[in-house]
Amino acid sequence: MKNAEINTLVKDFPLVGDLIALRETCWFNPQTTTFAEGLPYVGLNEKDVEDAHARLTRFAPYIEKAFPETAATGGIIESELVAIPAMQKRLEEGFRQKISGQLLLKKDSHLPISGSIKARGGIYEVLTHAEKLALEAGLLSLEDDYSRLLSPEFKAFFSQYSIAVGSTGNLGLSIGIMSACIGFNVTVHMSADAREWKKAKLRSHGVKVVEYAEDYGVAVEQGRKAAEADPKCFFIDDENSRTLFLGYSVAGQRLKDQFASQGRVVDAQHPLFVYLPCGVGGGPGGVAFGLKMAFGDNVHCFFAEPTHSPCMLLGVYTGLHDTISVQDLGIDNLTAADGLAVGRASGFVGRAMQRLLDGFYTLEDQTMYSLLGWLAHEENIRLEPSALAGMPGPLHVSAGEAYRRMHGFTEEQMQNATHIVWATGGGMVPEEEMAQYLAKAK
C-alpha cells in the first residue's frame, strides 16, 4: 500500500496505527451478535458437526491400532482440561490485575500423534479424504470396522494418491504423519519459520518436505500449484477448508462433556471465556464455532496474535479480511511464534466468525517467552511460544470495564466465570529446543 492509503486507513481505523507501531493492542468487537444471528454467515450447521463426530468415531478403531498412544481413549484424539491456580496467581501478581473467576488450560499442546491443536483439523481432513476415496472405490462401507484400513490392500490403494499442504509446522506434522500412516504420498511445503525438528520428524515418517526462504503465504501458494499439476494430488487448504474447520469444531461438544464430568456449569450466570492463539484462523475459528454450537451465547471467544503478525485482527477490524496483509502496512510477519507467523488471514474464517468473536489482542514475542517461563515454573507445564498467546486474555477481560458494560456482565457473573487458555502446541518440542525457549524467559 502507498503511504497515502495507509494514512487514510489509520484515520478511518485508528488501531491500525498501533498495529503498525507493533504495540500490544486489544480490541473488543462492537459487532458481536447472538449465535442464532451469526450462524447463517458460517455456512455450516449442527448436522455438519455431528457428521464430523460420527466420522471420527468410525475411524477410532483404526487410530487406536495405528497409534497405540490413543488406546486409553479408544482411538479418540482428545486433550486434558486442567486448572492452573499457581499460574493464575502469578499472572495476577506479574500484571497487577485480579482475574475474576477460575483459570483453566486446555492441553491441545499434548494431543497424541502430533502434539498440537492441528491434530484435530489436519488429521480429520486426511481421514475424510481417505474415507471418500475408499468408499468410491467400493473397498469400504460405513458399517465396516475401519481398522481394516491398516491392511496391505488399503496401503497399496492409497499409495496411488498424493496429499500436499503448506505449513509453518504443526499442521504439516499432523497431515504428514497421518497421511504417511494411511499410505498416501505426502509433501509438506514448509515456510522459512518452520522449526528444524518438525522438518526432521516429518522426514522420519517418510514425508517429503519442501523448504522455502519465504513465509507461510508462499509455502501455501507453491503447494497449491504443485497439487494442481497432479490430478491424483489433494491439496489441503488451511485458508479455506471447511473440512479442516469442522475437524476443529468437534472440540466444542467434547469440552462440554469434560465440563459435565468435572461438575462445571456454563450458563448466563456462569459465563465461559476462551482465548485462542490465531495464525491463518482455521484452528481457532473451528474451535470457536464448535464452542458456540455447544454453549451458545454463554461462551465468549477471543483470538490472540503476535504483534508482528496481527492478520486476523487487521482483517476483521477493518472489514478488509483477506484483501489486506500485514506486509501491506510494512509489518514484517517475523515472530518466534512460528505457528502464528501468518501475514494474511483466512477470508473464509474472518467473514464466517466476525460476528461471533468478542475480541482480539496482540502480544510481543518476549511476553510469550516470559509467560512460557512462568507456566513451566509455576505448573511444570511446557509449551511452545505460540501456545502462550492465549494467556493474557483473562487479564484483558478482567480489566475491560467497557467490554463488561457492553455485555452487561455483573461482578457476580465475573466471579463465577471460567477462563480457558487454549494451549495449541508444544507437547513434542525436543528438550534442547525447550531449553532455548526457557533461556529467553524473563
Identify the strand order in the major beta sheet: 1-10-9-8-11-3-2
Query: How would you sum up the major sheet?
Result: 7 strands, mixed
User: Span from first to last CA?
Assistant: 37 Å
- Strand composition percent: 5-15%
Structural class: alpha/beta
Ranges where pLDDT stays below 50 over 5 or more residues in a row are none
What helical percentage do the residues reach?
40-55%
What's the β-strand tally? 11
What would the average pLDDT be, to the nearest integer? 96
Shape call: globular
Radius of gyration: 21 Å
Short description:
The protein is an alpha/beta fold and 442 residues long.
Q: What are the key terms here?
A:
about 450 residues; alpha/beta; seven-stranded mixed β-sheet; four-stranded parallel β-sheet; 11 strands; about 45% helix; about 15% strand; globular
